[in-house]
């Protein structure tokens, strides 16, 4: 028999959210959503508040990424919702099942000029899987369930609901949603068999695994497929760490050689976008394994593209019974290049230069970060180095803005990571440019006793813009920041702590102090503005 629930709109919404495993709320206070706060207060449902709405959405997204379940952000009407749209858009590009609940001006006097009266739906529909205004209190549980079902159905993504003032404040009664998980989507078996045959018969195959491998809980299946077929694996996004660095099939440094020399490239759970040369791998055949037909690349001719539950597809690849080519020599060739690149990186990470080179920061971080540390990248130039020098040892430990490239994720991601893993190291890597987007939310971390370590690569410029602009025009504008700004003092003023480091020899001790501090702690590292991550253009 279906359970009936009753209460005001906030209570009905929260009852539905609990059924889907939502366990916390991120918000910035606003009168339009008071009933949601009341429901949380009455039932000891944790509420974490922030200083900018985008941080609330980013925090909710971090929860979805790390815990593979829905995350919740509650935003007040008008500017509360519009301030959160960058977070929604990042979640859309990252396939993160975030639910944003928005307040809304009263429906009964719509058009009369109520405070913060605007129609949010035309703004959020392009960057959500489902967007709806709920006009009946009794309809709130149904709407929450429908939104979360859409969010969790691959290809996953964010959803949005807003409630007119009188709807969320009124009392109603409705059926309790069950919160059932969506059924797995089975791929076309002929397409899966075609992909398996291509990989098994390839002379020089490569697998590139992305974030959907983690979010789709397909890490074990990926390892099984790689090991069964003997294929080297590269990763990006939250696919990083799917194979530990010491695994004989795990590669990171030899990607250019692998992708230029491969005859079959298998891309699993990530789009064929700018991060992967838009799927152009020369003469190699491309196998694109995706979690839904909508994710098949339309700009690349693929040899096979199975679409469905990644666990099922990868397990089928592992179970392929046909003839297989021995890839031992190919793997050995790549290992030589991998080892040579690691040796070069080791030299760069030990550099004793003055001013400090970014590579040295990552060399010191590798010494202090635990295998299960959560590492968060929020920046351009400085964080580009992180992708090169840091190698996550475990899956589900790497957070970056993803293909949308939105700066300002750092403090929200840190909040979600600390709540998810209270006993692990949480380290945010920020450029000094990115620090300007979200550093005020250190106050939120301090006030709610959520310690994290922040490392700022402070070169006083927008590195990915200044150097390319100079190369293109011979000059640059709007690319300079205040040199040697004391971001550590900003954090200290909000109740945290920190220090500025100008000598490479002092980095190690500073990082150790940061991880022992027990409060939000910022290590402000003055780096060489001439040392920019090698990239031909930020516009590609």
From TrEMBL:
Q: Which part of the chain is the Thiamine pyrophosphate enzyme N-terminal TPP-binding domain?
A: 9-121
Residue stretches making up the Thiamine pyrophosphate enzyme TPP-binding domain? 378-525
Superkingdom of origin organism: Bacteria
GO terms assigned for molecular function: acetolactate synthase activity; flavin adenine dinucleotide binding; magnesium ion binding; thiamine pyrophosphate binding
> Which co-factor is required?
thiamine diphosphate
The UniProt keyword set, sorted, is: Thiamine pyrophosphate
GO CC list: acetolactate synthase complex
Keyword Transit peptide in the entry? The reply is: no
Please list the coiled coil stretches.
Answer: none
**What residue stretches are annotated with the Thiamine pyrophosphate enzyme central domain?**
192-317
Q: Give GO BP annotations, semicolon-separated.
A: isoleucine biosynthetic process; L-valine biosynthetic process
Asked if the keyword rRNA processing belongs to this entry, the reply reads no
Tell me what this protein is called: Acetolactate synthase-1/2/3 large subunit
Q: Which organism is it from?
A: Micromonospora sagamiensis
């Amino acid at each position: 028999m279906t359970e009936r629930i009753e209460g005001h709109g906030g209570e009905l919404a929260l009852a539905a959210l609990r059924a889907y495993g939502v366990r916390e709320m991120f918000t910035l206070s606003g009168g339009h959503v008071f009933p949601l706060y009341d429901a949380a207060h009455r039932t000891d449902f944790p509420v974490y508040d922030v200083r900018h709405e985008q941080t609330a959405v980013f925090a909710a997204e971090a929860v979805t990424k790390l815990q593979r379940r829905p995350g919740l952000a509650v935003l007040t009407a008008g500017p509360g919702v519009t301030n959160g749209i960058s977070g929604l858009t990042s979640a859309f590009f990252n396939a993160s099942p975030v639910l944003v609940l928005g307040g809304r001006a009263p429906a009964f006097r719509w058009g009369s000029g109520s405070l913060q009266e605007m129609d949010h739906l035309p703004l959020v529909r392009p960057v959500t899987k489902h967007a709806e205004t709920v006009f009946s209190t009794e309809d709130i549980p149904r709407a929450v369930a429908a939104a979360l079902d859409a969010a969790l159905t691959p290809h996953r993504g964010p959803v949005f609901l807003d409630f007119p003032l009188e709807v969320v404040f009124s009392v109603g009664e409705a059926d309790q949603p069950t919160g059932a998980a969506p059924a797995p989507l089975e791929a076309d078996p002929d397409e899966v068999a075609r992909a398996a045959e291509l990989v098994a018969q390839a002379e020089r195959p490569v697998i590139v695994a992305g974030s959907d491998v983690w979010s789709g809980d397909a890490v074990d299946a990926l390892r099984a497929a790689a090991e069964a077929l003997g294929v080297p694996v590269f990763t990006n996004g939250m696919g990083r760490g799917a194979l530990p660095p010491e695994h004989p099939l795990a590669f990171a440094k030899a990607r250019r050689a692998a992708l230029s020399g491969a005859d079959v490239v298998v891309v699993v759970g990530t789009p064929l976008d700018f991060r992967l040369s838009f799927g152009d791998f020369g003469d190699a055949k491309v196998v694109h394994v995706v979690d839904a037909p909508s994710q098949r690349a339309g700009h690349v001719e693929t040899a096979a593209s199975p679409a469905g539950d990644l666990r099922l597809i990868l397990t089928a690849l592992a179970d392929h019974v046909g003839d297989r080519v021995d890839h031992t020599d190919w793997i050995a060739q790549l290992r030589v290049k991998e080892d040579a690149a690691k040796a070069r990186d080791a030299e760069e990470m030990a550099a004793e230069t003055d001013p400090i080179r970014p590579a040295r920061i990552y060399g010191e971080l590798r010494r202090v970060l635990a295998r299960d540390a959560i590492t968060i990248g929020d920046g351009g130039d400085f964080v580009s180095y992180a992708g090169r020098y840091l190698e996550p040892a475990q899956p589900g430990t790497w957070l970056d803005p993803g293909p949308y490239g939105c700066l300002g994720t750092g403090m929200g991601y840190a909040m979600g990571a600390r709540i998810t893993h209270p006993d692990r190291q949480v380290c945010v890597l920020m450029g000094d440019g990115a620090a300007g987007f979200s550093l005020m939310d250190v106050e939120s971390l301090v006030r709610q006793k959520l310690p994290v370590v922040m490392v700022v690569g402070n070169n006083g410029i927008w590195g990915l813009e200044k150097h390319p602009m100079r190369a293109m025009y011979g000059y640059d504008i709007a690319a300079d920041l205040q040199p040697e700004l004391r971001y550590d003092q900003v954090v200290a003023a909000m109740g945290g702590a920190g220090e500025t480091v100008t000598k490479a020899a002092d980095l190690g001790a500073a990082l150790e102090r940061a991880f022992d501090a027990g409060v939000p702690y910022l290590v402000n590292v003055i780096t060489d503005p001439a040392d920019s991550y090698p990239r031909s253009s930020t516009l590609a």
